Amino acid sequence: MAVVAYIAVEYIEFDSNKEVLHLTLFSMFFLLSNLMVNIGRHKAAIDNDEHAQSLFWITLFALSAAMLELVDLAFDQVLAAMADPSMVIYSNALGIVEFLISIFAVLMACFSVDKFLVFLRSISFELKYIGLQVKKIPRPEGEG
């Protein structure tokens, strides 16, 4: 009897972890977009309109992924409420839509991280070049 109760508790915890998963993904994507906004606030990183526009679109992608995770959580709540056997077709269709939204949100976040890393690489090369041009450090006379 204790084994059956333990299995029931584990199933309930597993089933309720979907909500925790969606909220965790929302938090991660939201913090990612917050990081991008904070990097964009630095004058050294955003020195022209092209960089600002690029970072703005990348940040919007990350924020959209976060919002899609909240929509996915809402669909999970609707699916949990649709326990009626006569609604099987609708619940299956909604499950497929929910799955596609979840995949799309993760792909949007991955795309935004990829573009953000490319953006940081281009900014770091430009800042390195500027730093080398500004600091022309003379070599000591003894070094060749």
Kindly, what is the distance between the CA atoms of the first and last residues, rounded to a whole number of angstroms? 83 Å
Q: Which structural category do the helix and sheet elements fall into?
A: mainly alpha
Topology, number of strands: 0
Q: Overall 3D geometry?
A: elongated
What proportion of the residues is helical, as a percent range? over 70%
User: Unreliable stretches, pLDDT < 50, 5 or more residues?
Assistant: none
**For the CA atoms, what is the radius of gyration?**
24 Å
Characterize the structure shown.
By secondary structure, the chain is an all-alpha fold. It contains three helices and no strands. α1 packs antiparallel against α2 and α2 (49-81) packs antiparallel against α3. It is elongated and about 85 Å long. The model has no long low-confidence stretch (mean pLDDT 77).
Task: Give the structure's gist in a few sentences.
With 144 residues, the protein is mainly α. It has helices at 2-40, 49-81, 88-134.
Task: Name some characteristics of this structure.
mainly alpha, 3 helices, 144 residues
Please render the helix and strand layout as text.
Layout: H1 2-40, H2 49-81, H3 88-134
Helix pairs in contact: 1-2, 2-3
